[in-house]
Amino acid sequence: MWSNEVNLSTYLLFEGNCKQAMELYKSIFGGELGISLVGETPMKDMFPEFMHSRVLNARLQSAVVDISASDWLRPSEQYVQGNNMSLYISGGSFEETGRIFSALSNNAVITDALVEQSFGLYGALKDEFGVCWKFHATKN
To answer: Which fold has domain 7-137?
Structure first.
């Protein structure tokens, strides 16, 4: 039923200090840290200029942790403690990711429709129990 590619990890949201937080975590846990800023991506035109220095995506992978994160990128919604953490489904095929998204969509609030972006398939939702989920798949 599941490929060996699907992973479940943690996705953190920060209030403008994602880069600093992820650099701290790297100094503690070691590993490889990749960071993409909004202004360095094809998606920059979707955001106001003041948000171009914010982190669109960061990922720290080490023998100890696998943490993905970004800055809060929803200017029309308020960042509050509690909506700053999600379960993160990544690594599966478009089809497998779509199946999981669809299964969790029942009675859910879909915050980002599952659609193909410049970096792959992406979507997000809050399930019927209030748990936030993010989904990402890249083309194989």
So the answer is: 2,3-Dihydroxybiphenyl 1,2-Dioxygenase; domain 1 (3.10.180)
